[in-house]
Amino acid sequence: MRVLAAMSGGVDSAVAAARARDAGHDVVGVHLALSAKPATMREGARGCCSVEDSHDARRCADVLDIPFYVWDMAARFTADVVEPFVAEYAAGRTPNPCLRCNERIKFSAVLDRALALGFDAVATGHYARLEHGVLRRAVDPDKDQSYVLGVLDAGQLAHAMFPLGDSHKSEVRAEAARRGLVVAEKPDSHDICFIPSGDTRGFLAERIDAAPGELVDAASGAVLGRHEGVQNFTVGQRHGLGLDRPAPDGRPRYVLGIEPVSRQVRVGTAEALEVTTLRADAPLWHGEPGVVEDVVVQVRAHGGLASARVAVDGDGLRAELATPLRGVAPGQAVVVYDGDRVLGSATIAAAA
């Protein structure tokens, strides 16, 4: 097959490209330029997509002796990932930009272009497995990325390759060293690639006008203070609330809910964060809609798992949890698993 290997400049995508080549495929490497100012998108191990990363990707392609190109996706990335990220926070929701990047950039914009150019598949360095078109968890539970791939539909999965799914990260680094790849010990990127400083609040403050509101005790309705905008909060948040006095019992307060219209942020106890039902919109489901028992839902890329009963129809998904989850925010994705197999996903609209 003709395979387009998306090479970020990190160790995972480099080894994925190498394995695709070793499997006998005709591999071409491509680096995605996602920022109009690439020099600003890395600070130490944070971020990605810098000039440094493109150079690392090119050096790895040279070692592997495969053709290499840089594709400018900055405008598409801004429109499909960055701007919706800002809009979601302004609306009081909590988005996952990595998930949206996979959905709208790597397996929409890039895959569409790859297929138009005659490629059969796109290979990435994600830790996940594909078996007969079915997405499954990776062998390495600490690196599993099936959650952020749970938004891919059957057509996209049919043209995807994840060569690292059967390996642990330590094995991938050791293999990169044996192959002489300069990225073998390169640190993993962290946080949100387009916010390399890690200061999400500062990033949003530059793009969303301040709209002050009230911090309200969810139990009593008492006004505890004021804030400068709902974009500064997410459900489950404990720090940075701006309250000048503790709760009467001395226990910490958490964000329980955000009302973007009234601009109220409700706070309360950790126990009040617990939810046992989820309602989610726009389900992407692999199979017939209906009810599935004894499945697992995941609401965050790392953690946030619970056994559940899930009902799916054309308009939405409802999950009844066997054990409560905390810190479930509208805007997050819920991904449903049967064992290690991804059954589908949806975007959380409400939890109770």
Helix/strand layout:
Layout: E1 2-6, H1 11-22, E2 26-33, E3 42-43, E4 46-47, H2 51-64, E5 68-72, H3 74-90, H4 97-116, E6 121-123, E7 128-131, E8 134-137, H5 146-149, H6 154-157, E9 160-161, H7 169-178, H8 200-205, E10 213-217, E11 223-227, E12 254-259, E13 264-268, E14 275-285, E15 290-298, E16 305-312, E17 316-325, E18 333-338, E19 341-351
Helix pairs in contact: 1-2, 1-7, 3-4
Catalytic activity: S-sulfanyl-L-cysteinyl-[protein] + uridine(34) in tRNA + AH2 + ATP = 2-thiouridine(34) in tRNA + L-cysteinyl-[protein] + A + AMP + diphosphate + H(+)
Function: Catalyzes the 2-thiolation of uridine at the wobble position (U34) of tRNA, leading to the formation of s(2)U34.
InterPro entries: MnmA-like, MnmA-like_C, MnmA-like_central, MnmA-like_central_sf, Rossmann-like_a/b/a_fold
Provide a descriptive summary of the structure in words.
Catalyzes the 2-thiolation of uridine at the wobble position (U34) of tRNA, leading to the formation of s(2)U34. This protein has helices at 11-22, 51-64, 74-90, 97-116, 146-149, 154-157, 169-178, 200-205; strands at 2-6, 26-33, 42-43, 46-47, 68-72, 121-123, 128-131, 134-137, 160-161, 213-217, 223-227, 254-259, 264-268, 275-285, 290-298, 305-312, 316-325, 333-338, 341-351. The chain has three domains: 2-178, 3-Layer(aba) Sandwich (Rossmann fold); 209-269, SH3 type barrels (Roll); 274-351, Translation factors (Elongation Factor Tu (Ef-tu), domain 3), CATH 2.40.30.10. The longest helix has 20 residues, at 97-116. It is of the alpha/beta class and 352 residues long. The protein starts with a strand and ends with a strand. Strand 3 (42-43) and strand 4 (46-47) form a beta hairpin. It is built from eight helices and 19 strands. Helix 1 packs across helix 7 (169-178). The chain has a six-stranded antiparallel beta barrel. Strands 5-2-1-6-9 form a five-stranded parallel β-sheet, with helices on both faces. Helix content is 25%, strand content 32%.
